[in-house]
Amino acid sequence: LAGRSFHPEPTRIRVGDVSIGGPDPVVIAGPCSVESEEQILETARSVKDAGGALLRGGAFKPRSSPYSFQGLGEEGLKLLAKAREMTGLPVISEVMDPENLDRVAEYVDILQMGARNMQNFHLLKKVGRMNKPVLLKRGLSATIEEWLMSAEYILSEGNPNVILCERGIRTFETHTRNTLDLNAVPAVKHLSHLPIIVDPSHGTGKWRYVEAMSKAALAAGADGLMVEVHPRPEEAVSDGPQSLTLSNFSAMMEELAAFRPRK
Ligand code: PEP
Ligand code: MN
Questions:
Q1: Where are the bilayer-spanning segments (predicted)?
Q2: What's the 247 CA to ligand 1 centre distance in angstroms?
Q3: Ligand 2 geometric centre to CA of 31 (Å)
Q4: Could you report the predicted ipTM of this complex, rounded to two decimals?
Q5: Domain 13-256, what fold?
């Protein structure tokens, strides 16, 4: 079902007034984690002003250490909903386990499946039975084939609205957090009709490289970007080093508007 041969026309996914998969690239931005009302509302306002299309923010966080901040949970979702009310931006947040799926779906416009859950087949099937778009991030060490098979789990349960997200893979390189595999963009375009966006924040792990890789992703034909931004990255409870400040984000958006290649 994910294959081009099955569905030659590119899939476009509508979320409110936003269309993902064309005609124009969309930018999803927001903090790694929702931390407080002030933080998310301030960020949402800037994302909106800079031309972002959707607001992101983690409420249930998949942290490598059990002792790290695990997210605000439902409180975080409520704050996201409040930010949506204030700005009109649709919101996206990660769902980590089947128990919380209904709760997350109640608040968000797009369900995010994180890299660590790309092969959580039980969860994939459950989101496949939801009537809500799903952003499926590529697994830490997943091949493109495995990733498309995970999309297939969602599609085969009846949910046609899957957006793929390249977020970097594990390689021997350690200077960057991950290696952003931009090969995946033309490869997915060739193999599938599903939209693909790129997350240069997790792909690089360093805010300084985010703008260059955002341009590269759009040049490669990505349908959009997902970028982490924070009003005070040095105080962020997660992923501060890869988060753009609000002013860096807005400067990047101006650059991207001038840069946007024709598809
Ligand atoms: C995130 O988007 O904050 C996140 C945890 O991403 P990933 O699943 O790609 O690591
Ligand atoms: Mn993050």
A1: none
A2: 23
A3: 8
A4: 0.99
A5: TIM Barrel (3.20.20)
